[in-house]
Design brief:
Layout lengths: L1 H9 L3 H32 L14 H28 L2 H33 L7 H21 L4 H15 L2 H11 L9 E2 L2 E2 L3 H33 L4 H10 L2
């Protein structure tokens, strides 16, 4: 417990976080690229066409992980926002705002690939379906967090406002998840029911690989953005000046 507390305490130090994340990022990128390469090979050379959806089923391997990530990242933003507001840990504030562009990108990908899948399945690119509409609201929440942060000149006030919106907006997450159960919707239900996954292992394995690889992508992208934000905010502080001195030839 003492080691865990010490680690948690260290993450609040910008210089320590910058150095630690710099060592971690290359590993995250490497794992992401390796897992994605394996998953894509399986998707295009091992997964058979679906008996109903045909080749369109391959969109699932981008759409589903992106949709999962769009919800997961916002949920993490809400948790980090609570930590930032209650314990006033500055690194958490930075992680909240650094997560927002990544989450927005995943949400856009989920909506676009969903539209691409919907055209042959539903006969249209878009319907005001409960799942699609609530996912679109999630995108607007991401945009709202980013816009609110940029509306303030003082970074700490901006981060607190963005953290608060992240917490409030989290109410949309259960709406997205349970929308296919609460309302009549064109969107298909979850393939992961109580009796186990409802898809064949040949199709399940690359899907899970993509789901895991996107989390490593998020981690690498998040830490890279957080490091850049810290340097911009602390460009006049001693630790940044020392860092620049070390990097000069």
């Amino acid at each position: 417990m003492n080691r865990l507390f010490l680690f948690f305490h260290k993450t609040g130090s910008p210089p320590w976080f910058y150095n630690f994340s710099g060592k971690l990022i290359p590993w995250l990128w490497a794992i992401f690229l390796a897992m994605t390469a394996v998953a894509m090979y399986l998707v295009f050379f091992n997964v058979p066409p679906d008996y109903q959806q045909g080749e369109t089923i391959r969109i699932m391997y981008i759409h589903v992980p992106s949709a999962w990530m769009s919800m997961m990242i916002y949920g993490l933003m809400a948790i980090m926002g609570i930590i930032a507001l209650v314990w006033r840990i500055r690194i958490m504030e930075v992680l909240v705002i650094s997560s927002a562009p990544v989450g927005a990108a995943f949400t856009i990908v989920a909506l676009l690939t969903g539209s691409m899948w919907g055209r042959p399945m539903w006969g249209t690119y878009w319907v005001w379906d409960a799942r699609l509409t609530s996912e679109l609201v999630l995108l607007f929440l991401y945009f709202g967090v980013i816009a609110l942060y940029n509306a303030y000149d003082e970074p700490r006030k901006a981060a607190k406002a963005a953290s608060l919106l992240s917490i409030v907006g989290a109410v949309n997450l259960p709406i997205i998840y349970f929308s296919v159960e609460w309302w009549n919707t064109l969107h298909q239900g979850s393939s992961f029911g109580g009796d186990g996954p409802g898809i064949h292992p040949t199709m399940l394995v690359p899907l899970l690989l993509m789901a895991v690889s996107t989390k490593f992508y998020y981690g690498a992208n998040l830490l890279s953005r957080a490091r850049l934000t810290l340097v911009k905010q602390d460009h006049r502080k001693r630790w940044v000046q020392d860092l620049l001195e070390e990097e000069r030839p």
